[in-house]
Design brief:
By secondary structure, this protein is α+β, with helices and mostly antiparallel strands. Strands 4, 5, 6, 7, 8, 9, 10, 11 and 12 form a nine-stranded antiparallel beta sheet that branches. Strands 1-3-2 form a three-stranded antiparallel beta sheet. It has two domains: about 70 residues, Orthogonal Bundle (Multidrug-efflux Transporter Regulator, Chain: A, Domain 2); about 180 residues, Multidrug-efflux Transporter 1 Regulator Bmrr, Chain A. Strand 2 and strand 3 form a beta hairpin. The chain contains eight helices and twelve strands.
Length: about 290
């Protein structure tokens, strides 16, 4: 160090570099940035312009989320090639976080769409059976599980929990509203023993996941007659609504053309209260 070189106290260095004094002391302890000199009598630290530059270098690398340990290795190595390789790894880590956050944003968008639909239905009709209408529904890729046993929200809840665990294990992304497909004749369905298939819709970008094609099936798209109601799913309400749907088909010249789908228009955060459920029956139809 030159006798004429400008020296700064730790307080001055803190202000010049906009960094807390405690952080400078910690950098000293780790050896990341050591002061140019330390007064032997009072322990005061003094920094030269060189150390101020080192502080700026550390701040720059910290802005790219290098750890202090990594920064110490980089500065001690002084090798451009080594720094470049570390920078490439950091860049890939940042890209992976972007992918994760993008996926999270997409999932949140879907959840908000579901909440908005639920709010609209709350405003659209009072408790009980809702309206009947015809819709065109696209093909839906689903991860599903079919078995014979009790029907209703309590047994379905356990099955959906298990199904979402499989979704996670397979590395798939859920996308849309959960459903149950009834494989028995709808008017003969009993809630003590039914052949049902619980389904979780899967996002299109998951179709390229290795093994996904073997795990998923498609609910075919087409024209569906739908009927909505609010509250707990039960045989009386469902069959009464289904009878209304049959009457609509007879009046408009359609016939059933597939299995009944029960879709739950409810956010996961609301599933603890079945009274807040909105359920839509979906029945594929064809012209007579």
């Amino acid at each position: 160090m030159s006798l004429n070189e400008q020296l700064y106290t730790i307080g001055q260095a803190s202000k010049l570099c906009q960094i807390p004094i405690q952080t400078l002391r910690y950098y000293d302890q780790l050896g990341v940035v050591k002061p140019a000199s330390v007064d032997g009598q009072n322990g005061y630290r003094y920094y030269s312009n060189r150390e101020l530059l080192q502080i700026k270098i550390v701040q720059d690398l910290r802005s790219m989320e290098f750890s202090l340990e990594e920064i110490l290795e980089i500065t001690q190595a002084g090798d451009l090639g080594c720094t470049l390789e570390r920078m490439k790894r950091k860049q890939e880590e940042a890209r992976e976080r972007i992918r994760t956050l993008t996926s999270r944003v997409h999932a949140m968008e879907k959840r908000m769409e579901l909440m908005e639909a639920q709010l609209q239905l709350q405003q659209a009709f009072a408790r009980g059976e809702g309206y009947v209408e015809m819709k065109f529904i696209e093909d839906r890729h689903v991860l599903s599980e079919r078995r014979r046993g009790p029907a209703g929200m309590e047994p379905y809840t356990q099955r959906f929990v298990e199904l979402f665990r499989r979704v996670e294990q397979l590395g798939l992304t859920p996308d849309g509203r959960i459903m149950t497909v009834y494989h028995d004749d709808w008017l003969e369905v009993t809630y003590t023993d039914s052949d049902t298939e619980v389904c979780v819709p899967i996002a299109a970008d998951s179709l390229s996941v290795p093994g996904a094609a073997d795990s998923l099936r498609i609910l075919p798209g087409g024209y569906y007659l739908t009927g909505s109601y609010r509250g707990i799913s039960g045989p009386e309400v469902c069959k009464r609504l289904y009878s209304r749907m049959l009457a609509w088909m007879e009046e408009h010249g359609y016939r059933p053309d597939g299995l009944v789908v029960e879709q739950y228009i409810v956010d996961l955060s609301q599933m603890i209260d079945p009274e807040e459920f909105f359920i839509e029956l979906q029945l594929p139809i064809a012209k007579l």
